[in-house]
Amino acid sequence: MKEQAILNNISKGATLLLAGMAISKICTYFFRVIIARYLGADIYGLFSIGLAVIGILLTLSFTGIPAGILRYVSYYHGKHDEKAINSVINNAFKIILPLSLLFALLLFIFARWISLFLFHNPDMINVLRIFSFAIPVSALATGIEYVFLAFQKIKYVVIARNIVEPVSKVIFSLIAIFMGYRLIGLTFVYVFSVLAATLLMVYFLKKIISFRKIALAPPIFYKKLLYFSLPLMFSELSILILAWSDTLILGYFVPAVQVGIYNAAVPTAKLIYTIPVALITLFMPTISGMYARKEDLSSIYSTISKWMFLFGVPSALILGLYSKQLLSILFGNIFVEGYFVLILIAISFFIYSLMLTSESILIILKKTKLILLNNSLAVLLNIMLNILLIPKYGLVGAAIATSFAFLVMSILIAVETYYFTKLIPLKPAYIRGLISAAIPFVLLFYLNKYINTYTLLGLAFLVFVYLVLYAILLKLTHAFGAEEITLLKAAWQKVKGKL
Q: Engineering a disulfide at 474: which of 80, 320, 480, 482 sits with its beta carbon 3.0 to 4.6 angstroms away?
């Protein structure tokens, strides 16, 4: 009964977070579509390079501290130790904010050198300078976000970061384009949207904690936070480099148009990541509290892993089958060239998403140095393969390099988790889930002959038919059992209560 209550809580929280993340993903994706469709692949490529640069600098600013906030605040929250919670938050922001201001200043100063010598494009100079203002603002927002997650105050994250920020990007980007503003205008829109969400999060933060108590908290957690978080900083930096190195190296070797095409395919493939991230965000503070109370994690681990698999399989199949159609409908015909990139990246992200629960277990066990080693190896592989393959194979070479790196990292995580815990996520439901996904997938090939999948209506209809049949087969094969049905009902009641 206790386990069911925990899963019920995760399900309810995941439902709210998933709804917010769905809005966020759709709006962020639409924001990219707007830039690509109305301003072209070259400007979209430059914008993508700018995002890659500030993403790396943001990760350096974090020094892994957000994961430390999530781990220690949820841990001491489980122990009801308010003094320790305030100290963790105090120490965390005294590390994040000064570093983020430093990196913002460095980017502003060296924007010309980065633009001319690395990317050979003077149009990047002002883009990077404007983006530099987003670094400290985003750092503050992310720190607050992880405080909310540790307290499991999901609604505040959903409102500010999943609704206000992405929706404002879409609305103001359309206004900017209508008024004739191009790349610079959209860069300002990005910074303004992040600022609006951050101010709202500060307002929400005042509702759950006392700023005065945090300010007066003793600095007793610096060493503990840094010891735990620094390996994660390098680990997160490795992941970010792994995610963005293909874009940055493409920016060096190929024209901005090709970078734009590649960065239409990759975010589309990353849609497969939405549900797993929502689940793992709720899973992490829950198991951290359970670990603090010395409770068994195996059943929760297996159940969450199964959910990720059952949600991920149909997403991977649909993205693979309709890769050309999706890119054509959403971005335009010029972007169809990236269809094979979309297929490769979608497969690799699906496999990696299955390892998120295992990686969370390693974090809880404080195996952060091991995670760093995994990620560093993957980054080295990715960079070397990108440099070797991009000059010869272009976009496909970048996709092969990134996919192989994620596959290697996934294998390492699975082996290490088993070594330390003997936990494996595999269940008979995986086979039943594959069967449930495969049968309607075969039907799609037949229906494709009669329905034009290069129209939004036709594609949406086939995807809807597929998902309905998949859901029915999951029930018939008992891949989605009584336990999940109970949780879905509880989650639906939670949603109805919010309406």
A: 480
